Amino acid sequence: MSAALGAAPVRDLAAATTTASRVVGPVLATATAATGLMAGLFFAFDVAVMPGLAAGDDRTFVTAMQHINASILNPVFGAVFVGALAVPAVGTWLLHRSGQRAATLWTAVATLLYLAALVLTSAVNVPLNDRLAAAGDPAAVTDLAAVRAAFEPTWTTSNIARTVLCTAAAVALTRALLLHRRPGAR
Q1: Which end of the chain is more exposed for a tag (fewer CB within 10 A), N or C?
Q2: Number of CB atoms found within 10 A of residue 69's CB
Q3: According to the model, what pLDDT value does residue 171 have?
Q4: What is the pTM of this model?
């Protein structure tokens, strides 16, 4: 009787490990996609949006960035923005539970890289966005050049760093996904 009682938890653990192993592939794919979407968004600002706005006058720049900053606060962006942190964290836990040490490490690194991008966003980009919004209607601002100068260089540099962090996170997740798919990789 005691042998039967002792065997049940082992079978339950094995079943949980097998389930975690089956779920982790889709979780890693979702994490990679979400992180890739964030890297792509930041990259688009680096190579198209900010250079395009840089070529314009101060009023156009301030008006466009105020509208972009207001428009991006939507449920789809929010889900991807938060999901790119939450889903890799879940993937890290699942990989750890299934005993895949190498893939766990890569997923943990990706989670930390994306977390660094979130910290940078919260510490630099969001406060700059808030100050730009607080400047008010560009038609009523007396010194648009000063408003722009207080925003553009720091925001742009910080965004480049976010692009690098998110791209590195996406690469780390890709590596984890490849390791997970490789038979015998632990």
Answers
A1: N
A2: 17
A3: 98
A4: 0.87
C-alpha to C-alpha distance for 112 and 29, rounded to whole angstroms: 18
Length of the chain as a residue count: 186
Q: Which amino acid is at 70?
A: A
3-class SS shares of the chain: helix, strand, coil, % to 5: 85, 0, 15
Q: Are 65 and 151 in contact (CB under 8 A)?
A: yes
Using CA of residue 145, residue 148, residue 149, residue 152, what is the dihedral sign?
negative
As separate numbers, helices (DSSP H) first and strands (DSSP E) second, the chain gives: 7, 0
Cα–Cα distances in Å, from 66 out to 82, 119, 129, 137? 22, 22, 8, 9
HSE-up of 4 (CA within 13 Å, CB side)? 1
Concatenated DSSP letters for 77-144?
Answer: HHHHHHHHHHHHHHHHHHHHHTT-HHHHHHHHHHHHHHHHHHHHIIIIIHHHHHHHHHT--TTT-S-H
- With a cut of 70, list the residues of the chain below it in pLDDT: 1-21, 182-186
Write down the residue that tokens 């949006």 correspond to: 49
